[in-house]
Amino acid sequence: MRENTSSSIKFHLMDEDVHIWSITLPSDQTIGQYYSLLSSDEKERSGRFHFEKDHRHYVLGRAILRVLVASYLGMQPFDIQFGYSQLGKPFIPTYPALQFNLSHCKDRAVYIFNLERQ
Question: Contact 7/74 with Cβ under 8 angstroms?
Answer without folding.
Answer: yes
